[in-house]
Amino acid sequence: MLARRERHGWSWVELSRRTGKPVWKLRWWHRRLAENPGARPGWNFRPVQVVEGAVSVSSRLELVLPSGVRILVPADFDPGHLQRVIATAGRGC
Questions:
Q1: Residue 90: which residues within 8 A CB-CB, separation 6 or more?
Q2: With the C-alpha atoms ordered 88, 41, 79, 52, is the resulting torsion angle positive or negative?
Q3: 28-43 burial, b for 16+ CB within 10 Å, e for fewer?
Q4: What stretches of 1-76 show up as alpha helix (H) in DSSP?
Q5: Which of 21, 41, 61, 88 could disulfide-pair with 73, CB 3.0 to 4.6 Å?
Q6: Residues near 15 by Cβ (< 8 Å), separated by ≥ 6?
Q7: Element of type H or E holding 74
Q8: pLDDT above 60 (res 2)
Q9: Domain-by-domain residue ranges, the chain?
């Protein structure tokens, strides 16, 4: 959205009208991304290590969040519950 604003020369009000996002939020993101160009909203790809081995019913998934929080997920996990755990861990508990 911010790149489109620059590309088209739109004002903050015009971008707000086109996206439905409030001007203050658009400007906040503009400042945040300008201060830290490497920070991008959303998920980023992370390197993974594939370990070969027998898969069993009790296999678990291990997630390590960018914050360093490690979450062990059982094979029969509830996706909704896992999303809530990740969201809570992402807020810094």
A1: 65, 67
A2: negative
A3: eebeeeeeeeeeeeee
A4: 2-8, 12-19, 23-35
A5: 61
A6: 1, 2, 4, 5, 21, 23, 26
A7: strand 70-74
A8: yes
A9: 2-35, 60-90
